[in-house]
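re: ur question from yesterday

yeah so i grabbed the chain u mentioned. its 324 aa long if i counted rite. heres the sequnce exactly as i have it in my notes:
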Amino acid sequence: MSSTPLFSLPGMTEDRQRIEDALLAAVHTKDAYLNELARHLIIAGGKRLRPVLTIVGAQVAGGPTLDAAVQGGIACELVQTGSLYHDDVIDESSTRRGVETVNAKWGNLQAILAGDFLLARASEIAASLGAEVAGLLGHTIARLCEGEIEQLRHTYDVGRPEQSYFSSIAGKTASLFSTAARIGGIVAELERPVIEALTAYGLAYGMVFQIVDDILDITSTEDQLGKPAGHDMVEGVYTLPVLRTLQMAGVAADELSDLLGAPLDPVVCDKALSIVRSGPGIAEALEAAAAYVTAAESACTALPRSAATAALLAAPQALLDSVA
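ran it thru and got these structure tokens back, copy pasting raw so excuse formatting
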């Protein structure tokens, strides 16, 4: 995905370095082996959108970058990274962010325990920020699990209801963006209506993020993705572009339905990708994402006028534009 207006705010380069330093400090232990496991995906890189969103959320009233916002943001990032460790075990993935996954390099047991360690560190940091943040992060981890279970229960299901898709991504992706933004408002001690607006914004932004990610899984090349295109279809996860293609009447939809429902070899995957790419599913998924862009922009009307708010306002459409 392309860059975001959030990264262009004054001081953001320094803030992003603070995030990196804080992440590494948070997972440091006396055990060199555990350090290597815990740091593996962190040092592989990432845009850190969730902690950036926490920092920007804390700045909407014109305030500075708070240490508490950095800590709250990295708590969210550690939850995200820990969940990726677990996801890679579930999916039997071999690469992530251009490097070997922890499960591929060290085994499933180590990956599960290292993921648990990251979640524990996140919870410890959240507790240091107060009971409200601690409770919020715990609730969000539960929402991630709910979203993942909803996805798993419809694996290889060509009749997956569209509502299942939206419910799943709201839990496993958008809820953490929502929490990241909300924590920013909480630690900055902003007024409650502003905190609620940040929460709504984060949820809508997260929905745009995941729909765009699912579209890119269909439209991008392996070099662009860092993993094979159509990975979700191979794993039996039928996302919005695929579901919309299956819903259309005609030969193409029937052919796609016949191809899906089981693991795909590379030749069959390429054929399925070709059908989805040539149908209306991608355009319709973009329309759905655009509705969430509008929802995120609407939430910004309840925020104070500031450079941070202007960046938040511009970010969802920039994310959607990255598909083009």
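noticed a couple things. The chain has one domain: 5-321. also The CA atoms of residues 126 and 137 lie 7 Å apart.
anyway ttyl
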